[in-house]
Amino acid sequence: MAQLSNGHLLNAIQDKFGNAILGAEEPNGLLTLNVNPEKLLELVRFLYNHEEFRFQFLTDICGAHFPDQKGAELASIYHLHSLENNIRIRIKCFLSADHPFVDSLTPLFAAANWQERETFDFYGIIFNGHPNLKRILNVDEMDYHPLRKEYPLEDQTRTDKNDSYFGR
Amino acid sequence: MEENRILAEDKKEYTTLNLGPTHPATHGIFQNVLTMDGEIIVDSEQTVGYIHRAFEKIAEHRPYYQITPLTDRLNYCSSPINNMGWHMTVEKLLGVQTPKRVDYMRVIIMELARIADHLVCNSVIGVDTGALTGFTYVFQWREKIYDIYESICGARLTTNIGRIGGMERDFTPEVIASIRSFLKEFPAVFDEFCRLLERNRIFMDRIVGTGAISAERALNYGFTGPNLRAAGVDYDVRVMNPYSSYQDFDFIIPVGTNGDTYDRFMVRQEEIRQSLRIIEQALNNLPEGKFFADVPEFFLPPKEEVYNNMEALIWHFKIVMGETDVPVGEVYHSVEGGNGELGYYLISDGGRAPFRLHFRRPCFIYYQAFPEMIKGSTLSDAIVVMSSMNVIAGELDA
């Protein structure tokens, strides 16, 4: 079987989804799509059920926070793997911090359950349709999402560590 | 305790049982709230995060070389694999090509780590079924693997082994000799361990058929590593996306058929034998050459040069202070860890520390299948299923 190429994959996706694909790039050879969050579930379902692509393995879900991108501060990032073609794809959904909603992938992948809970825990992204969206690694009483960039690593009242000594 | 009993719709009374957070049989800090009908588990819910250490947040504030010690503490049964995975991720971002000798040295160390990891897991399955002998016997040999780590890098458990760009020093003749003697003496010991358990009637009666999961469910749950292979899917990162010259070696990927505890045990047993084969091939064909790639921004220069050469002194200072900027980029790299696909997703914005680093921890992803796997089994089976899944608290909670 001929090796499935990123170009072929991208063409097929763009034919089907057109303007839902907001951007595409290939950092280190991994096809990366920027997708309209409303179309995420539909796109992943298409990739899952497509008889040639068969992206049926969810490798990873994680979040990211870009405070400088106004209106698209949060990102929910997915890595899918087609084991039959041995090709991976990365899908990014950018969300605004005021309205961080995206569809849950739990109807397709049981693996999404805890990974979405983790992303919610650290970034506050709400996954619509998730059966049990609550914190997983942090304590339930926590009232913020600690991996967002506005939360510093250490207590800022400390005076014994002065970065200016190191030119920072 | 009236409030501990759930009144179900069928008017049957169930008991709630807390297994953990600290229970000697769970080998780590996990809480399982089990709903029991007599001795049968009806439902369960896990609580994780007891040893969460915010590694992903810390990593955003550390220069790249200081992240290696964080990776040690993920799956601490096979730290070298985590270290090497991280080095390779950064090398991929930097576009560094490592010499063959580095690749082979890494393969030797990673396969030793895999043997140590699988030995712990399999011997602990024995312990949980009442066979302590095998455990004490093979743990001596895990110690010998740790001795080899120690002679390579000076540390035993949390190794911080290797550097971005290569190894911190070359293998000494003593290291080669100790690996050779391990390869010579370990198989006889391992055969005895196999004879003790593999076809042991009591052991088999205890674990065959417990905690089974089908290939479809395992894939849907994102299983990787020995647990997925036990269900019959031959996915191994070493073969699918070879890294560190794994394509040079001849080895077999064992697969099971039922995905039960016995299959997981047997897959790990066979992987130990295959790892021995890989180490032997790597050692016999160890190429001559440099043990580090040409990346002065990340690889510390030799100490003599630091004292006598201005350029080396500057590099040394910049590396230790973590003042080297890394190119902007985005990279996902995965290695076959002891438990499965250990992935690193790194976003660099061009600074001295990662903008975002995410660890794909295989344990975290497959442990969510635990309730499904133990539903309808007894409490004692649940303990064995958990050991056979090899859930490592450090990796689970990051």
Strand content of chain B: 5-15%
Query: Which class of chain A in CATH terms?
Result: Alpha Beta
CATH topology of the largest domain in chain B: Cytochrome-c3 Hydrogenase, chain B
* Terminal Cα span of chain B: 36 Å
The string of secondary-structure elements of chain B, in order, is EEEEHHHHHHHHHHHHHEEEHHHH
Structural class of the secondary structure composition of chain B?
alpha+beta
Number of domains of chain A: 1
Q: At the fourth CATH level, what is the homologous superfamily of chain A?
A: NADH:ubiquinone oxidoreductase Nqo5 subunit
Could you list the spans of chain A in which at least 5 consecutive residues all have pLDDT below 50? none
Poorly predicted parts of chain B: none
The chain pair with the largest interface is: A-B, 34 and 41 residues
Task: Provide a count of the helices of chain B.
Answer: 17
Quaternary structure:
heterodimer
Give me the Rg of chain B, rounded: 22 Å
Tell me the layout of helices and strands.
The complex is a heterodimer of chains A (168) and B (398).
Chain A: H1 6-17, E1 21-25, E2 31-35, H2 40-49, E3 57-65, E4 74-82, E5 87-95, E6 101-103, H3 112-123, E7 126-128
Parallel strand pairs in A: 2-5, 6-7
Antiparallel strand pairs in A: 1-2, 3-4, 4-5
Chain B: E1 5-7, E2 13-19, E3 31-37, E4 40-47, H1 55-59, H2 68-72, H3 79-94, H4 100-128, H5 132-153, H6 173-197, H7 201-207, H8 215-220, H9 225-230, H10 237-240, H11 261-284, H12 303-308, H13 310-321, E5 329-336, E6 341-348, E7 356-360, H14 362-366, H15 370-374, H16 379-389, H17 393-397
Antiparallel strand pairs in B: 1-2, 2-3, 3-4, 5-6, 6-7
